[in-house]
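Please produce the structure of this protein holding EPU.
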Amino acid sequence: MIKKSYNKNLHKLNTFGMKVSASLYIEYDSAEDLTAIQWDKLPQPVLNMGEGSNLLFTKDFPGTVLHSGIKGMDVVEQMSSGDDLFVRVGAGVIMDDFCDWAARKEVWGPENLSAIPGTVGAAPVQNIGAYGVEAADIIDSVECFEIATGKIVSLSAEECEFAYRDSFFKHNRGRFIVTHVTFHLHGDFRPVLEYGKLKEEVERNAEIYKADADPYKPIYQTRFVPPMPVSPMLVRETVKIIRENKLPSPSKKGSAGSFFKNPVVDAAVFRAVEDTAAGLKGETVAVPHYDLPDGSVKIPAAWLIEFCGFKGKTCGGAAVWEKQPLVIVNDTGRATPRDILALERTIIEKIKDTFGIELSPEVDHI
Ligand code: EPU
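Below is the modeled complex.
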């Protein structure tokens, strides 16, 4: 069913809490609904939005915002070998509900992506990622509605051209609307624990909570634990705790998660960053980094931002999150797009001046 609202207030519909409106807002709950829309009559441009958790509205939106209510999680295929599952999930399902479903079923795949805000439909567009897993690693195919032809098309994972926080959909904005995502989950034991201290934390939690009988009680509520030694639920709960300690709670502080991408630079640029940091500090500085297979180096933007003294810095109602400076928050609840854009610009300029690296925003500017 389609529901239309004009001059829709989007304040509660974007996690940054920007007080903006859209000329037209359309809610729909099936792929068929999309075929019934007269696309050429809609105020333009058209923006399909999930939870509004990875975007920054910079002003009132003159076009049409569409919101998917397509639900459903259906096992479409279960392989006998290793109990692999293919699950088709509606774009309007909350991503974390899907992560919870998979952990309860004790299948591996999305547990590291637990507690990422947003819907399943946004996962392939942004190629969401956390703790060593990206949506690309677990997506089998993506079904979408092609606005120009009115047809549903299915793209294989390869056709989605996934890259770091990037995909085919990002380069074809306004052409496709994701309706369903089919995930490939695994029954055999395959936790991904190599990121940071995740393995250590999972093992620590496994020890602490060993005693409990109820496998599915969330750790943070009960201080008790899932089946041992390591289950998808244990990894999920551990990831949730790590995120809770670092990232602002979406219900308490408006934000859109990581505001910037982690820059990938040549090895020579990385050495120059080390030299600059050492020059400024007057001593050798261990700059955190990840060496990538092609010889380039990924540097955590959080480190660059912290080094340049931005932790906790404010600009009007906006602030750099103290515990994870990669995140900009609507600190007062009354931050305007202008506050956030000004803070963003100041950070980008300072890091460019200091290290010669230009940060790119991870959050979509609308
Ligand atoms: N760091 C600092 N100071 C800080 C925090 C972090 O210097 O205050 C440095 C440390 O060296 C740390 C490194 O940054 O080791 C990495 O920090 P973290 O593990 O928190 O990850 P991130 O690179 O900052 C990325 C994703 C997050 C995802 C985490 C965990 C991007 C843009 N962000 O952040 O994704 O949760 O890894 O996998 O790639 C999101 O996209 O919205 C998001 C939150």
